[in-house]
Amino acid sequence: MDNLSNIGVIKDVMQRHGFTFSKALGQNFLVNPSVCPRIAEMGNAKKGFGVIEIGTGVGVLTNELAKRADKVVAIEIDDRLIPVLEETLAEHDNVKVINADVMEVDLHKLIEEEFDGLEVAVCANLPYYITSPILMMLLEQRLRIRSVTVMVQKEAGTRLCAPVGTRDMGAVTVAVNYFSAPKILFNVSRGSFMPAPNVDSCVVRFDIKEDTPAGVTDEAFFFKMVRAAFSQRRKTLVNSVSSGMGLDKAAVTKAVENSGLPAAVRPEQLKMEQLVTFSEELKKLA
Q1: Is residue 62 domain-shared with residue 118, that is, in the same domain?
Q2: Residues at the annotated binding site for S-adenosyl-L-methionine?
Q3: How many domains, the chain?
């Protein structure tokens, strides 16, 4: 069904199936006809690729992905949308819809069973409240995927794609850059959705790195340090890490010194290599 971005068509489909939007699930469906084709084109939906879609809505993006990729596996948590999707995606024989919470799906197994011989990409128009948990799950699991393309709040996209070592960065920026190379593809106005959210959005693609930064001997410790460092942005690295990790301030100060960093350095001033060096020095003294 090619006219799924038409508001009248969407309302008709929803009405016939008795579907209403769920605030709890953060549902805002795309109605701008130019957005989903661009996401599909720029999100690696093409021959030789299988695509995992997370959060289908009424199938607007699913339809565009299915036109381009060899196979699409769409994961949708709202069981009320399953009969809707059976109608809107009826013309595609390369789409499989799974009614599940993506956070509970064994994605390694899914990729092995559904995408044998194919490269794999992830595309998603996620509810904003759960974007970061799902994104980090996808990255941390080290799945056999080439990229993750998601719609996020514009402000969140700026933070996710900020260079490490700049004022806009945060703990999630470090994590994202650790596993991938993020890039804002294009902006999407709030009027592109039904119902319209209160913020503008952007589409971001995370190209998965083959190798994570060298020198990290304990990833769990590294990310614990990063979360502590950015938990109190106005504080120095020494104060935020000693407070956030419950460590002796003298030990943290020594780790900063051993890393060749200024005593009053702030977390946002550190490049990835400096964060890694500091983490390794801290681990020796913690």
Answers
A1: yes
A2: 28, 30, 55, 76, 101, 125
A3: 2
